[in-house]
Amino acid sequence: MKYRPEFQDRFGCIQDSRKLCHKFFPWYNGVLRHSGIGMMTPQMVQYGTAEKVRDLRQSVLDQAHIAHPERFVHSAPKALELPTQVWINKPKNADEETR
Fold first, then answer.
1. What are the DSSP calls for 45-73, one per residue?
2. The pLDDT of residue 56 is above 60
3. Contacts of the segment 56-59: beta carbons below 8 A, 24+ positions apart
4. Is the pLDDT of residue 87 over 90?
5. Are the C-beta atoms of 79 and 57 separated by less than 8 Å?
6. All residues at 6 or more sequence positions from 44 whose CB lies less than 8 Å from its CB, including other chains
7. Which residue of 48, 56, 75, 93 sits 20 to 30 Å from the alpha carbon of 63, by its own alpha carbon?
């Protein structure tokens, strides 16, 4: 949040901070595509639509490859895989905890 240009160093009152948050969080969760979750939004992951969106992306990429294979010199394009785990601060024993 602090790296967004509209974020202020200080707020005049709690209402000012709430006003910013009421704009920021819907954008962050519903619009911003996160690289750590396969360029999906948190809402897509939370509500279970991420796999469908990924499949649709792959379909578009497949069609583009069929239509213009010369654009893809190394291989056919692949949609980003969805991670099986996502962490903000990964615990030291995270792999052991998920077993």
1. HHTT-HHHHHHHHHHHHHHHHHH-GGG-S
2. yes
3. none
4. no
5. yes
6. 50, 53
7. 48
